[in-house]
Amino acid sequence: MGSPPSTLPTVGTNLTDLILKKKKVTVREIGGCMGPIWPSYFQDCFSVIFVVDSANIVQISSSCIQLLSVLSAEPLRNASVLILFNKRDMPCIMSLTEIKSLFRMDDIIASAPQPVTALEASARSGQGLQEVLSWLESVAVK
What we know:
Blueprint: E1 13-20, E2 23-30, E3 47-53, H1 60-71, E4 80-86, H2 96-103, H3 105-111, E5 116-120, H4 129-140
Parallel strand pairs: 3-4, 4-5
Antiparallel strand pairs: 1-2
């Protein structure tokens, strides 16, 4: 997989092409501040990786509201969804159980029309990224 990429908050959009099991998959990264225009990118989207900054407890509630908006979007009704709790390597963060409780993961999974998976990772250290790629492969080759 190589070394993890440098990490900076996304401002605007970034496109990355991946080859997964000989299939080209385009990943479009859209920054959280771009939330109002996210729906313009939902058409022809087969999966969503929704990244949550788990080191920023103040934003957990607003992230949850944004996620509920994504999950209720009609064009994404059949998309597979991965909720990725990032920055798990940071000191003084809540446990994953506490974050999932605060994020109301059980309620989100129960009410979402799409399949929802939750993983944790650290983009900086690379921890958990192999699981993310495995998830993406599993939904991309359907």
